[in-house]
Design a protein that fits this description.
The chain has 236 residues and is of the alpha+beta class. The chain has 2 helices and 11 strands. The N terminus and C terminus are likely disordered. The structure holds zinc ion (ZN).
């Protein structure tokens, strides 16, 4: 008869413990190709697939019936990195305010379902478009920054999506439901690709690093080990 030796702590518990540690410390292990897990209280979690070249997501969408909400995703980067439009649209807001700093809002559609969508880009370092401007998918609309009141101070883009609901109303939506490549499949912008404009679908709001399998065209961005080192220093 053989006996198996049980680990002092079951492996799933260890993994959950590590995940909790990552969340509470705000630690981002990689600056590209990584996405944070959802908070446990989020009801409709999506399996997120990140292209290797996509700037990492440090915080996911959170909507609960009570308590704290985070109605968007946080995309990390360096101050001054490009922020790009996720679909064709018209700029319906470009302004600054104390909490979220420099903000750009773009209205898209209506799509084949007759609904408009609104995308919102916050904490920008600079705004490069004005209210009324018509913008194309992939167009640079601002730069990533730290403006407004940023908990932790890590430079990031706070990105939100709203879908039209009824006359004049809008509801917050998890951005991961609306990528060009499908639910949960983060899609890098590619200047050489053609996109179906009859449905609302987004490409990533930050250019992906070239040299990866799903790269963005026209945005040469070489490996920057300095960034990773800087981030580690910040988080220690
Ligand atoms: Zn955020």
């Amino acid at each position: 008869m053989t006996t198996s030796t049980a680990l002092p702590v079951p492996l799933p518990v260890l993994t959950a413990g590590l995940a909790a540690l990552l969340l509470t410390s705000g630690c981002v292990p990689q600056d590209h190709g990584w996405a944070s897990v959802y908070k446990p209280e989020q009801q409709n979690k999506i399996t997120v697939v990140m292209p290797a070249g996509a700037p990492s997501i440090s915080q996911q969408f959170l909507f609960t019936t009570s308590g704290a909400k985070h109605l968007g995703i946080d995309v990390i980067g360096k101050v001054g990195d490009p922020v790009i439009a996720v679909a064709n649209g018209r700029v319906t807001g470009s302004f600054t305010e104390p909490a979220y700093g420099n903000r750009v809002e773009i209205t898209h559609g209506p799509d084949a379902s007759g609904r408009q969508s609104l995308t919102v880009y916050k904490h920008l370092d600079r705004r490069l478009v004005a209210k009324g401007d018509v913008v194309a998918r992939g167009q640079r609309i601002g730069t990533l920054g730290t403006t407004g009141m940023l908990g932790g101070g890590i430079p990031h883009l706070h990105f939100e999506l709203y879908r039209q609901a009824g006359a004049g109303g809008k509801v917050s939506a998890d951005p991961h439901r609306f990528w060009v490549n499908g639910v949960g499949r983060v899609t890098c912008f590619n200047a050489g690709a053609s996109y179906d404009s009859s449905r609302f679908a987004m490409t990533y709001p930050a250019p992906c690093r070239t040299g990866s399998s799903d790269q963005a065209a026209g945005q040469p961005a070489p490996e920057e080990p300095r960034q990773a080192a800087g981030l580690e220093a910040l988080l220690q």
